[in-house]
């Protein structure tokens, strides 16, 4: 067991030196390391400062949205030629229900409704497309269309994917470095922006759905009348975007929506010097907008953002060019924000901020400093302690300990893992526990020596017998660390990663490296007794 | 050079006998913890309770605590918990979870920043909504339970059932006393506390497993020895290792407590306590339990076979 082939010794030395060099490369200046394409670990937001914002897709709103869309679909298929007479079209108990008036039309109605139960995206999910809606007919001529749970889950997934894309476009507009936007769980999106100190601007960008629509104003009733009674069936009363005045009764029918925008830019009105947002429609949008404005000269239309009326100008002449401008008591800042939102597109469902954590760069720097000092002091404590207890063998253990810390950093770099403040705590902790394997081996040797064996068999027995114990004791720690890794989030996960890597490397360094050093020592000095 | 030896060679302290004292003491402390938990409860941080924590740093001079308290209370988010920290003008504000879901918490951050922007920087702002805090409680509890179960299964495979059960009882004891530490010191219980507890679970088992490994080995070697003697021998022969490892772990964590900085010292203090408790329980709690669990029952025959097999192969 104390015999090592030359190649094996060389391999271990190369491995250790490589690990230590790789670890040290993280402390090179950034440009040099990048130029050499060296892998490096990432500092967590708690260490480099920045904002961590966890968003949740509003699944309730999404469900409601889908149900309303489904209800509109039912209306659409029934009003196709030949029309089907129906009554009681409503959303009830999370399902759309409708009754067909004429018994003779039930068969036609069923066929048409069945079109609405087609899979969500048969093109994308090969073969096992999920059916979004289920059609039931509890009694003759009475139909209930209900969204399936699988269909809804699929919708949520799509909405999160879409939202991630839009959130990315919005965040990119802030011009921050390396924002990271990732999916978390079923309906969450995690936005991490290093270096961002005041996330207010970001939060306000993310907090808006930015659904823009152009619709005609319903002039048959005044907002005051509607506020007291009911709006006409195809119109609704909407609040003003800015302030209290400017409520309007607006048709539900959308002329053009934000999806048809190809550009939006903030600017100033030449005459009034007021902040505006100018926009351009795509071909489709321009055509529809031109047609509607031609027919409705003299009538006001409303520009509606997230169900609030920004402004309701009167159409003075047909707008044929496909471009226009929105004014409505903007500040230059809010005009800029709106154009960012319009360029990035609307979110499929509202997002809410469920968690925010922001750390200033100063605090991060302090944490790193404190962590460094704690690491050095812990190393000095443990190194001294091992040396005064085991002498030469303590020195071997200490060399293994230094390589062990180097290996943790090397592995963190190779995995491009994130080092967090709890992660630094993990490193300090493994410095204390890493020597445990050495202690187990050395104490075992001491016992073996007492029973009067030769030194070689003492050394071998020490390693062999302690090995099972080392594996058992580290496995229990590893199990706890693994569970932490799977369940923990953010900084705590950083701790789990370091702790787990520490357990892995300690087995390598304490067992293999120490054994090699002791073997070399034995071969060179041929001692007769243990040196401690 | 004369080397340090914490535990003198040939120590034969009768640890198992000490259970006459250690058991009542531990039982009392565990019961006291349960009573305190029910009476006082843990000092949950915003991770689990929801709410907003804002740390502010005076741009110049010392923070005006009275003024901050007054302004914060007038923001309309209920009474703010105001605390000074450090000695360089740090002050922390804590608001309880606001009614009205996620958006309400965002408003707290926005208004507080606006109110204090002039005189203060904001090194840390954390806001946790009701949904996330609920989930964090769930996953935290799940984590601790899961780790105990997972380790129990591992130990059951690697050791005899009695040893596994004894190790887990020791670990539960350590978790309990750690909770007691949280209750008594009023230290904030947050996500890193869960990490600390799980680490303590790992460390506690590490300590116990080393002793039990020896117990198992000795059990096969000395078939006639009484359980009590056997356990004493196991603890004594691993004692210097236990002391060494506990000391080195203690020293490194001590460095963390002293130099690790404000953000980590709470975590480190719990770990430091954990090392002490785990070492105590491995020696005085887990091992003596084996007397009651009937160590030799059922394993004697199996042990016989194995040891005779081993004896045959060994020259």
From TrEMBL, chain B:
Matches recorded under PANTHER family: PROTEIN TRANSLOCASE SUBUNIT SECF, PROTEIN-EXPORT MEMBRANE PROTEIN SEC
Subcellular location per the Swiss-Prot or TrEMBL entry: Cell membrane
Protein's recorded name: Protein-export membrane protein SecF
Domain Protein export membrane protein SecD/SecF C-terminal span(s) in chain numbering: 113-294
Function: Part of the Sec protein translocase complex. Interacts with the SecYEG preprotein conducting channel. SecDF uses the proton motive force (PMF) to complete protein translocation after the ATP-dependent function of SecA.
Assembly and interaction partners: Forms a complex with SecD. Part of the essential Sec protein translocation apparatus which comprises SecA, SecYEG and auxiliary proteins SecDF-YajC and YidC.
InterPro entries recorded: SecD/SecF_arch_bac, SecD/SecF_bac, SecD/SecF_CS, SecD_SecF_C, SecD_SecF_C_bact, SecF_bac
Membrane association type: Multi-pass membrane protein
HAMAP family: SecF_B
Any one annotated GO CC term: plasma membrane
Keywords: Cell membrane, Membrane, Protein transport, Translocation, Transmembrane, Transmembrane helix, Transport
Pfam families assigned: Sec_GG, SecD_SecF_C
């Amino acid at each position: 067991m104390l015999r090592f082939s030359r190649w094996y010794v060389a391999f271990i030395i190369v491995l250790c030196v490589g690990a230590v060099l790789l670890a040290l490369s993280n402390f090179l200046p950034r440009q040099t390391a990048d130029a050499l394409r060296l892998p490096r670990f990432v500092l967590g937001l708690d260490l480099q400062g920045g904002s961590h914002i966890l968003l949740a897709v509003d699944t309730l709103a999404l469900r409601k949205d889908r149900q309303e869309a489904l209800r509109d679909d039912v209306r659409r298929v029934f009003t196709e030629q030949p029309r089907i007479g129906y009554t009681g079209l409503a959303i009830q108990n999370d399902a759309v229900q409708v009754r067909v008036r004429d018994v003779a039309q039930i068969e036609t109605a069923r066929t048409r409704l069945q079109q609405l139960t087609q899979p969500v995206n048969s093109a994308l999910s090969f073969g096992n497309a999920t059916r979004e809606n289920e059609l039931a007919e509890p009694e003759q001529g009475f139909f209930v269309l209900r969204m399936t749970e699988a269909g809804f889950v699929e919708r949520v997934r799509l909405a999160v994917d879409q939202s991630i894309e839009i959130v990315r476009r919005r965040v990119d507009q802030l011009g921050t470095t390396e924002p990271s936007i990732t999916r978390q769980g079923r309906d969450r999106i995690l936005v991490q922006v290093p270096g961002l100190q005041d996330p207010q601007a970001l939060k306000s960008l993310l907090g808006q759905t930015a659904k823009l629509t152009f619709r005609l104003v319903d002039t048959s009733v005044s907002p005051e009348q509607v506020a007291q009674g009911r709006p006409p069936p195809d119109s609704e009363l909407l609040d003003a975007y800015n302030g209290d005045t400017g409520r309007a009764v607006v048709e539900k029918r959308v002329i053009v929506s934000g999806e048809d925008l190809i550009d939006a830019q903030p600017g100033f009105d030449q005459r009034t010097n007021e902040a505006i947002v100018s926009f351009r429609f795509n071909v489709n949008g321009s055509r529809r907008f031109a047609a509607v404005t031609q027919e409705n000269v003299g009538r006001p239309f409303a520009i509606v953002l997230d169900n609030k009326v920004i402004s309701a100008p009167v159409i003075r002449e047909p707008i044929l060019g496909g471009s226009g401008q929105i004014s409505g008591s903007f500040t230059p800042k809010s005009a800029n924000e709106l154009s960012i939102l319009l360029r990035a597109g609307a979110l499929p469902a509202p997002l809410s901020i469920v968690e925010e954590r922001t750390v200033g760069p100063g605090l991060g720097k302090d944490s790193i400093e404190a962590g460094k000092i704690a690491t050095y002091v812990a190393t000095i404590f443990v190194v001294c302690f091992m040396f005064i207890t085991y002498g030469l063998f303590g020195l071997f253990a200490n060399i293994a300990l230094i390589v062990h810390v180097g290996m943790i950093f090397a592995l963190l770099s190779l995995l491009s893992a994130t080092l967090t403040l709890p992660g630094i705590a993990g490193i300090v902790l493994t410095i204390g526990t890493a020597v445990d394997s050495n202690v187990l081996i050395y104490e075992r040797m001491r016992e073996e020596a007492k029973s009067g064996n030769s030194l070689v068999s003492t050394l071998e027995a020490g390693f062999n017998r302690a090995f099972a114990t080392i594996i058992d004791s580290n496995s229990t720690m590893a199990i706890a660390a693994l569970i932490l890794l799977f369940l923990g989030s953010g900084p705590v996960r950083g701790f789990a990663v370091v702790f787990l890597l520490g357990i892995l490397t300690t087995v390598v360094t304490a067992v293999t490296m120490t054994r090699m050093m002791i073997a070399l020592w034995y071969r060179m000095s041929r001692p007769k007794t243990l040196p401690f | 050079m004369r080397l340090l030896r914490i535990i003198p060679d040939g120590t034969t302290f009768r640890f198992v006998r000490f259970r006459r004292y250690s058991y009542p003491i531990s039982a009392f402390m565990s019961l006291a913890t349960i009573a305190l938990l029910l009476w006082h409860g843990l000092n949950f941080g915003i991770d689990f309770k929801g709410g907003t924590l804002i740390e502010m740093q005076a741009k110049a001079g010392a923070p005006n605590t009275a003024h901050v308290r007054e302004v914060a209370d007038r923001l309309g988010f209920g009474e703010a918990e105001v605390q000074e920290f450090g000695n360089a003008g740090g002050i922390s504000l804590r608001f309880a979870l606001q009614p009205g879901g996620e958006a309400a918490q965002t408003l707290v951050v926005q208004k507080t920043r606006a109110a204090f922007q002039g005189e203060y920087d904001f090194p840390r702002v954390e806001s946790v909504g009701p949904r996330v805090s609920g989930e964090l409680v769930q996953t935290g509890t799940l984590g601790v339970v899961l780790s105990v179960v997972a380790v129990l299964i591992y130990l059951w495979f690697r050791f005899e059932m009695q040893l596994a059960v004894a190790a887990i009882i020791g670990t539960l004891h350590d978790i309990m006393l750690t909770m007691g530490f949280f209750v008594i010191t009023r230290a904030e219980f947050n996500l890193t506390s869960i990490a600390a507890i799980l680490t303590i679970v790992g460390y506690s088992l590490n300590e116990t497993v080393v002793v039990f490994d020896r117990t198992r080995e000795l059990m096969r070697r000395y078939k006639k020895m009484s359980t009590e003697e056997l356990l004493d021998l196991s603890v004594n022969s691993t004692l210097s290792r236990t002391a060494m490892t506990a000391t080195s772990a203690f020293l490194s964590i001590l460095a963390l407590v002293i130099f690790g900085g404000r953000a980590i010292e709470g975590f480190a203090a719990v770990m430091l306590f954990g090392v002490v408790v785990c070492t105590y329980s491995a020696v005085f709690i887990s091992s003596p339990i084996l007397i009651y669990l009937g160590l030799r029952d059922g394993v004697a025959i199996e042990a016989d076979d194995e040891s005779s097999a081993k004896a045959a192969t060994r020259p």
